[in-house]
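My convention is simple: the sequence line spells out the residues, with the fold written below as integer tokens. I include a record here:
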Amino acid sequence: MILISSDKNSIVEIDKGELLSYIFNKEELIHQKGTAGWRNSDTEMFPIIGPTKANKFNVVTPKGNYNQDQHGLLRELNYKIEKQTENTCIFQKKYTAYTAVENSKYPEKSVVRLVSWPYNFTFKKIFNLNNNSLNITFEVISEKGMPFMLGYHPAFKLNGNNSEICNTAKESITLQEIIDSGASAYPILNTNEITLIKEKGYNINIKTSGYNNFMLWTEVPNMLCIEPITAYPYVEGKLLSKELFNNSKGLDTFEVLISPLK
């Protein structure tokens, strides 16, 4: 699926809900699948963020304990397209409470074959491309009070010389610092905006609504995951404590605005 901006200078490619490419003025901004770093270009983390192995793959909810693997079961479901225009498209996933879902990490990376969640939910991913930016909106429709965490996990293409930095209003983080932070990622808390600064090509500004936190992760100098998150899961050694979860309002909306800058 291809989206094209009104001025024809931006092109977005999407496959089954995954953002494969965002070309702005002939420059590719998104990490390309098949290159070093990560097998994907974007994904979502829901209804939990982070690992569950230390909790024996159990997540506590008001309706009991249920098996979840790292970053939740949403990624095991398939998107269906709901609508498409020249510069907009809407994808949707639906889950029925208590349905057992095959865990793709089993058996190579997990001992849990089936995962499930005790709530119905509908999850929408909405792309809107304009001349200056790409807006990605997430809508979570569920039973009021459902606990959940949400993270968006896009990967951006870098120059490969370890020169990039990420700036917020309060700090500046080098790419090497992010690499050194390891699998738990580098947390940036209590902010809704971050800018990736590159020596060559377009810088990338990311503004969010509904998240107010980021994680930064990579193991290589040619890509960087800049991940808006509702909560950072690695707090004082505690994994998936109740305080990390949002409570559903019935309809919860989150936005990520990706803007290339010179």
About this structure: The longest strand covers residues 251-261. The two ends are 28 Å apart (CA to CA). The chain has a mean pLDDT of 95.
